[in-house]
Fold this sequence. Notes:
Bound molecules: NADP nicotinamide-adenine-dinucleotide phosphate
Number of strands: 12
CATH topology of the largest domain: Rossmann fold
Low-confidence stretches: none
Radius of gyration: 21 Å
Shape: elongated
Distance between the termini: 35 Å
Helix content: 25-40%
Number of helices: 9
Structural class: alpha/beta
Number of domains: 2
CATH superfamily of the largest domain: NAD(P)-binding Rossmann-like Domain
Strand content: 15-25%
Strand order of the largest sheet: 8-7-6-9-10-11-12
Order of helices and strands: EHEEEHEHHEHEEHEHEHEEH
Amino acid sequence: xxxxxxxxxIHGGTDNWSPDRWKLRFEDxxxxxxVILMPATGVDPSEVHYxxxxxxxxxxxAAFPNLKVIFNLGAGVDALMADKSLPDVPxxxxxxxxxxxxxxxxxxxxxxxxxxxxxxxxxxxxxxRWAPKPQWPAGALSVGIMGLGTLGIRSAEVLxxxxxxxxxxxxxxxQVDGVNCFAGAAExxxxxxxxxxxxxxxxxxxxxxxxxxxxxxxxxxxxxxxGAPVLINAGRGGLQNEADILxxxxxxxxxxxSLDVFTQEPLPADSPFWTHPKVVLTPHNxxxxxxxxxxxxxxxxxxxxxTGEALENAVDRGRGY
Length: 321
Ligand SMILES: NC(=O)c1ccc[n+]([C@@H]2O[C@H](COP(=O)([O-])OP(=O)(O)OC[C@H]3O[C@@H](n4cnc5c(N)ncnc54)[C@H](OP(=O)(O)O)[C@@H]3O)[C@@H](O)[C@H]2O)c1
């Protein structure tokens, strides 16, 4: 019997999302089924049983009447959830060590960058100024991670090993060894009060949109050796109020920020973030998805599904992540 085809719907633009590269990887790991890079001519939509997608055009997935599972090729499913015509079949997101460790690297890099006063030191180098300031130990700072899921937990573990005091905030109560865990709206203020460096690894949902705003920043600890708290957002741009961030950098509510994500991507050339001296920005590449790892992951999930095993990392559509 012919196996159901796998359709690839990949729109994104940057080098990592080259559709041809993904097609080659999928053909390698799905040798017994047809892999169709969409849009394609001569395709019978009813032969497609699986779709592996990145930012499909709304309505595109509804064209496959026999679709059984949708695989999102990244961890965040916010773009998909916005598609009102999304077929009502299981939706699986990415959760693999490769991606998790890439995000851990980004978070550790940026926490250390602010902790070790890199902005001041680069500025000193540019000015040929030999004037080191006193340096405090990692244990003098509390890092608070909003979103204690796959990515947040791994980052928390490594930051803890380095010596930072680490807390996490999630929707439901979590327990992570050596990490001070807070949950829900009732415990948010207590979490913020003890936080010097706020790391956002939240999914973008109706509940979290715009959560990184002045109210939250004002509640962070302002008495650490940093002088003013730092924000690091590698979740989604829609989590942050960008006008608030800029205003808070001016009045000292925030001391510096590292932003990997923005409400509009690519970031427009006239955005003040590009040149702001207290902003470290990266072009949404904190944790790239690797076609080799992710294609193998999707092939494994299809094999599980076809032998009646439960799919891993299925999205709860009610929660939105
Ligand atoms: N910049 C990049 O390159 C990049 C790459 C990959 C992913 N991301 C982003 O990172 C996000 C997190 O990924 P993940 O794999 O760690 O997701 P995950 O495993 O689903 O974890 C999400 C965490 O956020 C918490 N959360 C969700 N809604 C909340 C709310 N309303 N209040 C408090 N906590 C809430 C969850 O709480 P519970 O524990 O109670 O469920 C969970 O701890 C993705 O959704 C994506 O947007 C960015």
